[in-house]
Amino acid sequence: MKVNNKRLPPVRRGFVQEEDAARLILGDDFAEEQCLFISEVKILLDAQRENKAGSDKNATGVYQSTFDYVNQFARFKNQDTVREVRQFLSGENLESFEVAQLANLCCEEAEEARTLIPSLVDKKDEEPLQALLNEMLTLKKFQT
Amino acid sequence: MFFLKQLKHTITLHPRFFGPDMEEFVKTKLYQDVEGTCTGRYGYIITVVQVVSISKGKLIPGLGSAEFVVVYQAIVFKPFKNEVLDGVVKNVNKMGFFVDVGPLSVFVSSHTIPSDMRFDPNGNPPCYQSEDQTIEKGGAIRLKIIGLKTEPTDIRAIGTIKEDYLGIIA
Q1: A62 to chain B: which residues are within 8 Å by CB?
Q2: Is A93 part of any domain?
Q3: Which end of chain A is more exposed for a tag (fewer CB within 10 A), N or C?
Q4: How confident is the model at residue A2 (pLDDT cuts 50, 70, 90)?
Q5: Same structural domain for residues A44 and A100?
């Protein structure tokens, strides 16, 4: 009988690394996942609503509260603008989580962005970040 | 934070649904089972965007029902510690106030509200007030999550607004 000699990775029983957005520790389940902007969630939900108009499958409380939430807090209402912001931010060397936070919070000053998204501090200096925010605000201002 | 996440779910289908519309039944059952649920691990599953694959059904011995493993993509909302979020004030009382961030309800205790803000129980509606800010029901607020408690079917969160750039937003 053949014995499997392959060594298994050490099992860390009961050890769970605490999630911490400030240090970009999102846990094993979400580390590699795509973060969505609130605006993107709005577009997805709107599209779904059109497809499934009339059916009552969307009636859950969670769905409704999210729908209201994204409608209130989506910064970019226009699909093209969202695409532009996504494209423009993905050109920067940032994690998906940071990109989404930047687009969701829409800070005006670099200092503000660095305070609210602490992981940016080591990655972006004040000036390039300010340029980035200005660009984003311009896109926001001129959306139709 | 909202995520687009690929998830797996096992559906058990009663034999009376076997037939030409079986796939539809599996999908409907999936929507019923997962949408609107909350798990500590994945957060709130808001809606299924797309069904990626449905495995071949496997009969359960002795029952006649079949099991299908469905892979699907869903929009999920999971809060993280130290994440900054915007929300709407739902309820104000002397212990603090509750903020709705989509499906999640976050409690902001009076200890994590700036010390110059005082609770005004006689206001209509009741509110927290300082010289230049008022927190009352319906206001939009930016907060930071400082603690999360995940239970199998629920997530509880507490937040703070006692830091720079947090508080009422225009």
Answers
A1: 35-38, 44-46, 103
A2: yes
A3: N
A4: low
A5: no
